[in-house]
Amino acid sequence: MELNRFSVSARLEYIPQSIDSFITLCEGLIASVTNDPTAQFFLKNAIDEFTTNAMEHGYLKSSGVVTVNVERHENYITLEILDNGVGIDLSKVRFDREARSYHDLTARGWSFSILSHIATQVSIKPNEPSGTIVTLAIPLPLKI
Fold first, then answer.
1. To 5 degrees, how large is the angle CA 92–CA 96–CA 100?
2. Residue 14 belongs to some domain of the structure
3. Nearest to 81 by CA among 3, 19, 1
4. Fewer Cβ atoms within 10 A, N terminus or C terminus of the chain?
5. How many structural domains is the chain composed of?
6. Is the peptide bond preceding residue 37 cis, with omega within 30 degrees of 0?
7. pTM: predicted TM-score of the whole model, two decimal places
8. What are the pLDDT digits (tens) for 93-128?
9. Could you give phi then psi for residue 118, rounded to 5 degrees?
10. CB atoms near residue 75 (< 10 Å)
C-alpha cells in the first residue's frame, strides 16, 4: 500500500516518551508515503525537529497539540507541521547560518538553515489565532 496523504494530530506532553511515540508513529506513516530512504530520513528528522521546537518554544515546555500533514505529489512531498502555541518570532529565524567553528556545529538552531538547502519551498507563518505553521516541499527523488 502507498499512501498519498496523511494527517496526525496529538496532544503531547513535554517528555521524551510522548514526543518519541509521536515521531515513531509519523515515521511508520512516512514509509507508506515514499520508499525513498533519503526522503524518509529527512522527513522524520524534520518532524522530530519541529515537534520538539513546538513543545519547547510554542508550548513553553508544557503540553500541547501538534499536527503533522504529509502529502505526496508526483515529484515532491509537502510536509506541514502546526501547533497552537505562542507562535514564532520570524525575525529570529535564520536561513543563512554557516558553520565556521566546532561550536557552530554543536549549537542548536540549525533546522531552518538546513531546510533551506534541501527543500524547494519553506514557509513559516502564524497559525491563527495562535501558533505556527511550517510547510516544506521536498523534491523526489531527494538528492543531497
1. 110
2. yes
3. 19
4. N
5. 1
6. no
7. 0.86
8. 665 656 565 565 555 555 655 666 677 888 889 999
9. -105, -45
10. 10
Percentage with pLDDT > 70 across the chain: 82
- Which residue reads 515514499 in cell numbers? 34
User: What grid cell was written down for 128?
Assistant: 491563527
Domain span at residue 102 reads: 5-139
Quick one: cell of 58? 510554542
State the CB neighbour count (10 A cutoff) for residue 70: 25
Secondary structure string (H, E, C) spanning the chain: CCCCEEEEEEEECCCHHHHHHHHHHHHHHHHHHCCCHHHHHHHHHHHHHHHHHHHHHHCCCCCEEEEEEEEECCCEEEEEEEECCCCCCHHHCCCCCCCCCHHHHHCCCCHHHHHHHHCCEEEEEECCCCCEEEEEEEECCCCC
Q: Does residue 79 fall inside a structural domain?
A: yes
The verdict on residue 144 lying in a domain is no
Output the domain CATH number for residue 122.
3.30.565.10
Q: Give the Cα separation of 139 and 144 in Å (integer).
A: 10
